[in-house]
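Lecture 7 notes: from sequence to structure.

We start with a single chain of 250 residues. Read the sequence below before looking at the structure.
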Amino acid sequence: MIRLEDLSKRYGKFWALEGLSLEVSPGETLAVLGPNGAGKSTAIKAIVGLLRPTRGRALVGGVDVWKEPVKAKMLFGYVPDRPYLYGKLSGVELLRFAAGVYRLDNSKADSRIEELLAKFRLDRFASGLIETYSHGMRQKLSLAMSLLHQPPVLILDEPMVGLDPHAAKLVKDLLRNYSKTGRAVLYATHQLHLVEQVADRVALVHQGKLMAHGSPSELLRQHQSTDLEEFFLRLTEDAQADLAPSGGPA
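Now the structure, written as tokens:
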């Protein structure tokens, strides 16, 4: 469903992402894990067509995101880490606009919008301007928009930011269950507890490179770690130490 081939992004001499190759199969949820600045958001933006890679390519459903952008974008829903939405539209107006972009017929769109507004507890605020929404409400509206056309692929960047407990549980259930019907989910996070709860496989990215890849249990066994926190700290600190100048501080 998602295939990354040598995905790389360079800014001058700095490689924000270098040689990332991964696959997410139908029925699978993959967590891209890494500390702040690891390259997670760079990878996500390259996958969804917001950032042109320096090298390599990203395919969704076998479609190259940069060669056939419209066709590829019909196959996935995307939730950014910071939702930038049209503030002068109401929540329901934005969802109707998105439904038109996804070419949903009006009757199907209206019932789907009503369902999603209720699911994310936004129905009371549907007629209010988005500029009056809190960050958490905008995040929930962004989630609802990504699910409008029931895409076979769901891509999320730090999806838990700013969510209240009810919405956080909805997102956890979504990440855990959305892929079960043959769809695929890829999400980026630095929250270890979220990885433990919902990921089938984990890709640890650090300093723009893939450091480890496998199921949580496989990674713990391979790296002789008792939990994901120990695994995460060991690999990222070892990588940092390897880059430290000889005789200097690690």
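Residues 85-150 form one domain. Keep this in mind for problem set 3.
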